[in-house]
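Q:
My hope is that you can spare some time for a protein that puzzles me. I hope you can help me see how the letters and the tokens relate. Thank you; the sequence and its tokens follow:
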Amino acid sequence: MREIDVSDRGNVATRLVHAPDEIATRERFSAPLARIRELMPEAEVAVLSPAEIAFRCHGLEFARARLAHEPGGFRSTSEVVFGVGAQERVLCDQNIDVSKAGM
């Protein structure tokens, strides 16, 4: 037998985080959810936080809906973004090609 430090739990760092309310988050993002469902009905939805959801196809994330602040104000609105890093683009009426989406 040997003495051990009871506070030594190895190299595992743990923490508890607040689980987002999925129903409230889906209600908050109802417009972006409906828009993505029109374009891709089979898209999977994952709630990441109260302010962000991810859209996935076969587990691969292709877009996110998130809360963004309106310029010059304190209000938040939802936006859908595609791409990563410098290639990230906000989905809007000017960059959506409705003819390719089958509408």
